[in-house]
Amino acid sequence: MADYTATVECEIDGRVGILRLNRPRQHNAINQQMMTEATEALRRFNEDERIHSILVTGSGASFCAGFDLKEIAAKGYTTMSQWRDAITADFEFVMQFWTSVKPTVAAVHGYCLGSGLELAVACDVTVADEKATFGEPEVKFGSSIVALILPWIVGPKYAKEWLLTGNDRMPASRAAEIGLVNRVVSEGTVEARALELAHEIAAASPMSVQMTKRAINRTADIQGMREALLSAVDTSILIESNLSPETAEFNRIANRDGMKAAVAWRDGRH
């Protein structure tokens, strides 16, 4: 039986909890309400002893287009303190899928952009539809990366090429080549295939799986991952609080003409 909120749909399939981002008209862009509801859904799955693994996916045509830029522009943050609170909350939202006690499997289709990509990467295993498109366009409009996890997954050279160009058109095949995703599957089958994998994980000993995941994450922390990510959050706060001309113009167009016009302006400059 499915459980619906305004922005998240949850259901249980055997030992797998399914968390589906549910703002399809906005390509599942993450707003404040979705952050609250998805966090609560993840907490419930982690506390439910029936659930051994968690599948994360999106409704409609896309996995997730990142944070809702229209909502961010409307808030009109002007101080470093405001940006610190907002970016820290955004960072913790993404990283909870990495630190989740139970293993997380992302099923990615359509657009997977910005912090939507970071969310997919934060999941323990990522399965992609062959037609999925990945991207981190933040530098194109003077913005920042919320959770700079990409270098820890694909290495600094690939991460620099991607993030410094603002590439938002990477195909699934290339994402697999550089280690961003674990598997690429036939068009239209990603949720079913990812669910199979989630069931395979769920069939193993929960205690062993959870402790093994914790050990792997702890290895990354010993190497400095958490400290580096928090340092990058500080950089993001500096970028956002020092409003660039590109960001100011992007926000002005978004407020006046809508997000589609702002994105068209951004893409037209490159």
Automatic annotation (TrEMBL):
Organism domain of life: Bacteria
InterPro entries named in the record: ClpP/crotonase-like_dom_sf, Enoyl-CoA_hydra/iso
GO molecular function, one term: catalytic activity
Coiled coil: none
Cited Pfam families: ECH_1
Similarity annotation: Belongs to the enoyl-CoA hydratase/isomerase family.
Name assigned to this protein: Enoyl-CoA hydratase/isomerase
Organism: Burkholderia cepacia GG4
Source lineage: Bacteria, Pseudomonadati, Pseudomonadota, Betaproteobacteria, Burkholderiales
